[in-house]
Every structure is written in C-alpha cells, then in structure tokens.
Amino acid sequence: HTLHSLVTILGTWALIQAQPCSCHALALAWTFSYLLFFRALSLLGLPTPTPFTNAVQLLLTLKLVSLASEVQDLHLAQRKEMASGFSKGPTLGLLPDVPSLMETLSYSYCYVGIMTGAPGPCC
After folding, report:
1. pLDDT digits (tens, 9 = 90+) for 38-94
2. Which residue in 30, 41, 62, 121 is deepest, having the highest Cβ count within 10 Å?
3. How would residue 119 be classed by pLDDT, with cut points 50, 70 and 90?
4. Of 76, 70, 56, nearest in space to 1 by CA
5. Residues 81/82/87/93 CA torsion (nearest 10 deg)
6. Where are the domains of the chain?
7. Kindly report the CA angle at 101 between 108 and 22, in degrees rounded to 5?
8. How far lies 50's CA from each of 1, 76, 106, in Å?
9. Residue 49: exposed, middle, or buried by beta-carbon count in 10 A (0-12, 13-18, 19+)?
10. Whose CA is closest to 1, among 66, 63, 50?
C-alpha cells in the first residue's frame, strides 16, 4: 500500500519539475485522478486499501496540491522579478526554491503534518 503514496508523490514531483508555471492545475488533476483510481481498486478486483492507507492518501492529495500551488506562486514571482529587471530580496511567504525530490518526499511523509495536522494557535 505504500506504493500508492509513492506513485502520487513521484507523479506530482515530476509535474512540478516539468511545468512549474502550471503545476497547480496539473497536480490537482493528477492527484484527484489517482485518488479516484485508488478508491476504485476494489471495483477493479485489486486488494482494498486499509483505512490508514486511505487516510494517508487523502491527506497526501491535499498536501501535494498545496505544494504545487506554492511552487507555481514561486515561479510567477520569479517571472515578475525578471520582467521588472531588478532583483529584490526573497519574498516573505514564498518557497525559497523549487523543492528537490528528497525535500518533496520529506514533506510528504512528515508524520506531524500527515497524521496530526497543523499545531493549534500559540498562547
């Protein structure tokens, strides 16, 4: 069942690397298409995933679409910066660079982000 999450992550990473300017829409289509396939495994005569695997796949779908959106925002900011002809410092709220495969895998499989959610507000 781990292969399902790995296929989703690798597919999204490949889309981000190939088309950073439109990777959000592509990642959205890819991850939700794979999620549809994943949910239809029992209809295709393949083993039904466990509830834990299902939860991981659902959360990965959301995380990877969000990551692709951030990469697309970074790419658009870099294009605007190049068009304006000058370089200003790093923009707050943007990724510093397009994530590598290892960074994408680390982000995707981070336990805190995948199974416990975001931390609550600070006091």
Report:
1. 989 889 888 888 888 888 899 899 999 999 998 988 888 878 777 776 656 555 556
2. 30
3. very low
4. 56
5. 30
6. 17-68
7. 85
8. 8, 39, 23
9. middle
10. 50
